[in-house]
Design a protein that fits this description.
- The chain has helices spanning 17-22, 51-61, 188-215; strands spanning 14-16, 25-32, 38-47, 67-73, 76-83, 96-101, 111-123, 139-145, 149-150, 160-162, 165-171, 176-186.
- It is an alpha+beta fold and 220 residues long.
- It has two domains: 14-186, no CATH class; 188-220.
- A seven-stranded mixed beta sheet has the order 4-5-3-2-8-11-10. Strands 1, 6, 7, 9 and 12 form a five-stranded mixed beta sheet that branches.
- Strand 2 and strand 3 (38-47) form a beta hairpin.
């Protein structure tokens, strides 16, 4: 697969532990599109009186994200930050990798493969001992969506398939996680061409056989 997109350098995400401990819930979603583009999204829900602190922490975790908005409900606010990179397979960030195995690499395969790997760090630099006491209750929900079907046997430890997406629940009791998954998507265009070629060959063989039968001399 040929790409002309320039390399992308980003600064994701060591995730502040205090973002997890001061929020009611935190979700980080990566969506991979067929061409390697995609969406990276942080969502943190919190009580109204924590909004300022949570906003500060979520910005620390996503300094390069260019869209931020809020959903306000009764006594609760969700801060949402988005970024749409044009080439996730061009990320130069250490610990983030997308490899697309397409027809150029495996011309005889009926599938395109997408391999994703990412390291997530949860750091406690400014968290006090009291704030980290309940660290196992502080959870980062990581969601990965890729083209085609994600293969369950390729998920790294703790990963599960929910509604076709890979999901991990990351707690503050570990400082680093490595998340991996592979998806495969049927090359329908390639498959249709193959069916057409096979159908044409069969048609030619049948036509040739019928002509041979018609032209065979009859016995008198």
């Amino acid at each position: 697969m040929m790409r002309n997109n320039p390399p992308i350098t980003i600064l994701l995400a060591a995730v502040p532990y205090l973002l997890l401990s001061t929020s009611q819930s935190v979700t980080f979603t990566t969506i991979v599109e067929r061409d390697g583009s995609g969406l990276r999204q942080f969502v943190a829900s919190c009580l109204e009186d924590r909004e300022g602190d949570v906003t500060k922490r979520i910005r620390e975790a996503s300094p390069h994200y260019d869209v931020e908005h809020r959903q306000i409900g009764p006594g609760q606010t969700a801060i949402i930050r988005n970024w749409r990179p044009t080439g996730l397979d061009k990320l130069t960030e250490k610990g983030v990798s997308l490899q697309i195995t397409d027809i150029a690499q495996q011309p005889l395969s009926l599938f395109t493969y997408y391999d994703w790997s990412e390291q997530i760090e949860i750091y406690r630099e400014t968290a006090t001992e009291v704030e980290t006491e309940g660290e196992k209750k502080a959870v980062l929900r990581y969601i990965l969506q890729m083209p085609g079907t994600i293969l369950p046997q390729t998920l790294s430890a703790g990963g599960q398939i929910e509604n076709g997406r890979a999901v991990w629940e990351l707690t503050g009791d570990e400082e680093q996680y490595t998340l991996k998954a592979q998806a495969r998507k049927v090359r329908w265009g390639y498959l249709l061409i193959l069916i057409y070629v096979l159908g044409f060959i069969i048609f030619q063989l049948v036509s040739y056989t019928e002509r041979r039968i018609k032209n065979r001399p009859r016995r008198i």
